[in-house]
Amino acid sequence: MSCPIVRVTFLLLNGCMLFCTSLVAAQQTPDAYLYIEPASVRQEILIPLRTLETLLPLSHADPATITVAEQDVAAEAIEVFFGLQNPVRIDGVTVHPVSTSVTFLDSNNVTFGLGADPVDLPAEATLVGIINTLSTKGSFRTVGMTWNTFTDVIRTVRCTVYSGDEIQRATLTLSEPDILWSGTTALDIAPLHVIPEPQRKGLFRKTIDVSDETARHVLSPLLRNIYRAFDYREESAVYDALAQSVEGDLLATLYLEIRASLQLESEGGPVSRVEEVNIESVKKLDTELSDAFRANATWTVRGRVEHWGHVHVRTNRYTARFDVRAAENRWRITTFDVLDQQRVETWIRPREDANAIP
Length: 358
Description:
Blueprint: E1 10-12, H1 14-25, E2 31-37, E3 40-48, H2 49-52, E4 65-66, H3 68-84, E5 88-90, E6 93-95, E7 99-106, E8 121-122, E9 126-135, E10 142-146, E11 156-163, E12 166-173, E13 178-182, E14 200-201, E15 207-208, H4 212-228, H5 235-242, H6 250-262, E16 273-285, E17 292-307, E18 310-327, E19 330-350
Parallel strand pairs: 1-19, 2-11
Antiparallel strand pairs: 2-3, 3-9, 4-8, 5-6, 5-10, 7-9, 10-13, 11-12, 14-15, 16-17, 17-18, 18-19
């Protein structure tokens, strides 16, 4: 599923641009975020480059510019530094990141997207975004963070905790450097869609006659179940759910391709949550397959992901060819060949404008 993106549409509200301007004008104050999710916690930091350099000296030949090559070198040092500083505690136990991403952003042209081609940036206008992902290893009740990197420049840190629809804010200072969230989390996963059983006919009940309508009624829930499997967080649980819809060697391939399609275009970035799978068309093709049918399908996937206080909602459209086989009294997909992929729409909003997200 690595076809080229045909069209990308960015629609930004005025509120987003005002927010970005305020970041630059706010006396170089860092922002820290904690995202509380059922199976993981993310610590995210957005800090002006000049402010970061008061904590961690970074080398760039031209003091006014940081080049792409220099960003790559700096990212390694930043990852190590923020892997040790500002510790996060889950149920009172300090937890270290399992993955980290570092992104350099131009504050004069911020869209808060990951995956844009890196470019040389003016040092005075550069923001550095850090995303640390921490594994929870099960349910938990408290998440805390201590900001321990105060300087003469960093006197306060704006901190925001997001947990579902709940938002908790605090201003961290040298005398009050801690924030604590408490509550309960639950991985609420809807059951898989029901797949119609193969309807056999004939004297020995061996013949399967599949109409266009039958192909749609079978393939549509199979497709939806593929994405629903990724509501689980443990890889083994995802595989078990996928195995209800996919057969054989395709299982591992499809797992990797779907997961990649849900990942923000940056290693270590958050994985988007699928909000809607819309089956636009299913067309059965004429073949001589035994106990199986072949069909082309077109569908859209709407996903949502959050980071650095912003919400991304994006919709992709796919067209693919499927072979679906009846075995063990159930249908499973045996081949999956993407014919076309398009980025239909991308929305970016500050979290505070969540009601404006379509």
